[in-house]
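Schema walk-through. Below, the input block comes first and the output block second. Nothing else is stored per chain. Lengths vary across the set, and this one has 321 residues.
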Amino acid sequence: MQITQTIAATAVVGAGYMGGGIAQVLAMHGHKVALGDVDGGIAERSRVRLVGQARDFEARGLLPAGAAETIEGNLTAAASIEEAVSTADYVAEAVPEDPVIKADILGRISTAAPAGAVIASNTSAIPIGELAAAVSNPERFLGVHWMNPAPFIPGVELIPGPQTAPGVMDLAEELIRSLGKTPARVADTPGFVANRLQFALYKEAARIVEEGVAAPSQIDAVVSSTFGFRLALFGPFAIGDMAGLDVYESSYRTLEKAYGERFAPPAALTSTVEEGNLGLKTGHGFLDIDPASREDLVAYRDSTYARLSQLRAELGQAPGL
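--- output ---
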């Protein structure tokens, strides 16, 4: 079987909030997008909604001038899922996060789409290997996990299944980059990376509420204005390397005494510190930071944090919170 080498015609199956956002991005970047949903009427109503929403985004300066017209010109509503995918090079599945529903829809997509069409599931947590059982020619199947709202969040996870062809991963990464997004390849494990981290934080935050340490609103204030503020610009390993991994290990020891094994220092951290690799201060940590870039990195960090603080002040408090 010859898998497509270029992507022109696309389809999005599941034209709700998440799938609709994916469709807007694809259409805005010049791809013809056929919307498929429960029936043609729902698909058409979604098309109208997405065009109207794009006009609003453009009027508010959230999309570039002319984006809404481009989106309208590239979006069509199909009478059925099968019609939507019948000529597609690339199909984005974005139906509800239910394994049974996804398996049914993926089976219909893989039967009706061209044999070489790439099929991408937007699942948030279901293993791609599990979903692949419903797909014929699973070497063309992968996970492409967008974040909500799709038009504005830059990161997209790419997840291969056990049979995904390497060329399919390359093609998907090329597509995502062409859409102005930031792809990250991750292994096929439940929750992938983004949701394992996100839900680990949420669970600990809920535990803090249960213990009476702080109210939900106060926890949100701490997260959004401290380490969450930094996470807008740097990932956890960059932040740790800049802070000093010896500091991190020492902090874990304190937390472990209070909260037990769940806060024991990770073995990877301990071994890195034992090797004398403490991050920015030694030039090596989890990341290898070029010592010649140290001053430039610190200057970048400080200036971007200052600008982000200014932006937060300009934007003000989120309505209702």
